[in-house]
Design goal:
Elements (H helix, E strand, L loop, with lengths): L8 H4 L2 H11 L3 H5 L2 H11 L5 E6 L5 E6 L2 E8 H4 L11 E6 L5 E8 L3 H4 L4 H9 L24 H21 L8 E2 L9 H6 L4 E6 H7 L13 E9 L3 H8 L1 H9 L6 E8 L9 H4 L5 E5 L2 E3 L6 E3 L13 E7 L9 E10 L4 E10 L6 E2 L8 H8 L1 H19 L1 H5 L2 H20 L8 H13 L3 H5 L2 H16 L3 H4 L4 H15 L9 H24 L1 H7 L5 H6 L6 H16 L3 H5 L2 H7 L22 H5 L21 H7 L5 H9 L4
Antiparallel strand pairs: 1-2, 2-3, 3-4, 4-5, 6-16, 7-8, 8-9, 9-13, 10-11, 10-14, 12-13, 14-15
Length: 675
């Protein structure tokens, strides 16, 4: 019967609800086996009355082994234990993966997560269906043959990508650790080419050594009766592994070869030893002792002497061109002897002497030729590389936008001397940000990602987690550099889709004659407290409960307005509508007073090392025009620009360079003062 009929294996060990604690704390085998109702259900599924036994294994690759009727029916591994999978939230992400003995994933179950997109916006049914979709994946199949892997869920790309990566890495590690697949390749047990005796020798499939009578007489001097020197063979020896059909079937014939390899257990191999000459590699003592004491195999400190239970006598060779030989022995080698690694066979020859026994060791070194090895299966490419390949177009669009923005910011003095170019360029860029970056590519950053980054730093940072979503990664990378060069305005003023939505709707409102409300400076500065409090509150709450912090993060309207494109329940839509309505009268109302993401970016923006925005000594004393025209009220009555609030719209730079607007330039034009 198939292994617990798929994902039902988890019922067998009741890890469906108990595994996260088991995986995290190493609960004993006795505890795991005491959950009788689930074991009884497993017996019913297995159609057997035999009890299902679950045993814990902590040496090597940790996990659980499930047995029924005295046979192994599967293995269980935890992604948190084996792969150390950490979600985008920076917290452990635990999925149990079930493997059958033939290295097929029979089920996967999500046990523990703190992912934002799993908690909000994506149903549990969606995630359960996604995780269960890994059932049936054959780990022995080539990577190119496994094209039916579940696709990552849109709007949950990072979290479901981490789940997929964790499941595949855990399954592969568990399969290698339990000997279900060979990480180093293996013996080619399928390919067959009929080969003659000279061909096997030329391919080093059989290694050959010969000891002449003269050499033996010298090595065994003093033996009685003495050996007579000569050119004849004391022993002529050939040996090699017969597991590859091209070797074994060519040597032994189809029937004998099938019988030989059919008796091999998992990890075992078969060695043929062929000899002619005076000396026997077998001798006769093995019939009494049960051990072939003349033969010893050694490999990496491990020694093995074949026993009678591992021996099979072969009467004749079936291969063309074989010489006349005296003895043909086939030995089953245990799995402690790695057939892929070199090993040495020692044949000990001995002769009695007057004083005792004279001995001679005949050494034969063997290594399986590359022609009979399978190439190591290439590991699955990291998921982030696969996603970046698949999203080359989206990545190119984002890189193009960032390149254009970089050009704008570096050439700001040239652009701000041309108000019409600035106006067209800004409206065009914000429109692209909203429709292409936001609604098209879902490139909206969130305070959730800031919280996730903080937790990742505290719990073990992994680049792979953040690389899974290329659009978001590029935006965060550019924003991080921008904080050093220009401050938070790089993102808030140009790359934030919701910020672009606010500014575009306010621009339209002003064009329709909607009167703007000037917030008094004292009230304006005090309202800033709201967004900083919101940011600190969400971050602090995440250390108590990530679930509650993610709910609190709904204070951001980004998910409703941008990620879900307004396809949400009416309370969320009402919240967005209220913010946009307020923004018709107070430009960028949400950015000014409510945005926790902006507050989170403003804190590291204190590290800004350049001051690109120009001011004059007269600003704030003789002229306050820039202060009244500032998009977000980032200029105080003294003319100073507050980098924590500036969105880098460059409007103040336009005014300063406009001879028709700036009072200082007007006066200089009248008096003839140098500019």
């Amino acid at each position: 019967m198939q292994f617990l009929k798929g994902a039902c294996l988890f019922i067998a060990l009741c890890l469906a609800g108990y595994a996260p604690q088991a995986a995290a704390s190493g609960v004993s085998n006795d505890v795991l086996q005491t959950i009788a109702p689930d074991a009884a259900m497993a017996r019913q599924l297995l159609d057997t009355q035999a009890p299902v036994q679950v045993s814990r294994q902590d040496d090597g690759v940790p996990g659980w082994t499930v047995r029924a009727d005295g046979r192994v029916i599967g293995y269980i591994g935890s992604t948190w234990e084996i792969a150390g999978s950490v979600g985008y939230s920076g917290r452990p992400l635990d999925v149990l993966v079930a493997l059958s003995p033939d290295a097929v994933i029979r089920g996967a179950r999500l046990i523990q997560h703190n992912e934002p997109v799993l908690t909000l916006g994506i149903s549990d049914e969606d995630i359960a269906k996604y995780v269960s979709g890994f059932a049936g994946q054959n780990l022995r199949a080539a990577v190119t043959e496994r094209q039916d892997l579940p696709k990552v869920i849109s709007r949950a790309t990072v979290s479901t990508g981490v789940i997929r990566d964790g499941i595949l890495r855990t399954a592969r590690t568990l399969a290698i650790g339990r000997g279900l697949i060979d990480a180093a390749g293996g013996i080619d047990r399928l390919g067959f080419t009929q080969t003659d005796w000279p061909g096997l020798l030329a391919a080093s499939a059989l290694v050959e050594t010969r000891v002449s009578m003269t050499e033996a007489a010298a090595a065994l001097a003093g033996s009685t009766p003495p050996l007579q020197p000569g050119d004849g063979d004391f022993i002529h020896l050939w040996l090699g592994l017969v597991d590859p059909p091209s070797v074994g079937q060519s040597l032994l014939g189809q029937q004998s070869y099938t019988a030989a390899v059919g008796n091999l257990g998992p990890g075992e191999s078969a060695l043929v030893v062929i000899s002619s000459g005076l000396y026997s590699h077998r001798g006769t003592d093995w019939r009494k002792s049960g051990v072939f004491d003349r033969l010893t195999l050694s490999q990496n400190g491990t020694t093995y002497q074949p026993g009678a239970d591992s021996y099979q006598m072969i009467k004749r060779l079936r291969i063309d061109g074989a010489p006349d030989v005296k003895e043909i022995s086939l030995f089953r080698l245990p799995k402690t002897i790695d057939p892929l690694a070199p090993f040495r066979v020692t044949v000990q020859a001995s002769r009695p002497t007057v004083d005792g026994v004279a001995t001679m060791d005949i050494l034969v070194d063997y290594r399986l030729p590359d022609a009979y090895r399978l190439a190591p299966p290439p590991p699955d490419a990291p998921l982030w590389q696969t996603i970046w390949q698949a999203k080359r177009l989206q990545t190119g669009v984002v890189v193009g936008m960032l390149a254009v923005l970089t050009l704008i910011l570096f050439a700001q003095e040239w652009i701000t001397r041309r108000p019409r170019l600035w106006r067209i360029g800004r409206i065009g860029f914000l429109t692209t940000t909203l429709f292409v970056l936001g609604w098209g590519l879902n490139g909206q950053l969130s305070v959730v990602q800031v919280v996730a980054f903080v937790h990742s730093l505290l719990n073990g940072f992994r680049w792979e987690t953040f690389l899974i979503e290329p659009v978001i990664f590029l935006l965060w990378g550019f924003t991080a550099l921008g904080l050093l060069f220009w401050g938070r305005g790089v993102y808030c003023g140009w790359l934030c889709p919701f910020g672009a939505l606010q500014e575009l709707t306010n621009t339209a409102a002003q064009a329709l004659g909607v009167r703007q409300i000037a917030v008094p400076q004292a009230l304006h500065e005090r309202l800033w407290v709201i967004k900083y409090t919101a940011f600190v509150g969400i971050l602090a709450l995440s250390f108590y409960s990530m679930h509650d912090a993610l709910i609190a993060a709904e204070f951001e309207p980004f998910k409703t307005a941008i990620s879900l494109r307004m396809l949400r329940a009416w309370p969320f839509l009402l919240f967005v509508a209220a913010i946009l309505f307020a923004g018709l009268f107070i430009e960028r109302f949400y950015c000014r007073y409510l945005c926790p993401l902006g507050a989170g970016l403003a804190i590291p923006a204190k590290l800004k090392i350049f001051d690109w925005l120009k001011r004059r000594p007269q600003c704030g004393r003789e002229c306050r025009l820039c202060e009244t025209k500032c998009t977000v009220g980032a200029i105080d009555p003294l003319g100073r620009i507050n980098a924590n609030e500036c969105v880098l719209c460059l409007r103040c730079q336009i005014i300063m360079n406009d001879a028709h607007s700036c009072p200082v330039l007007k006066r200089r034009a009248r008096t003839g003062e140098p500019a």
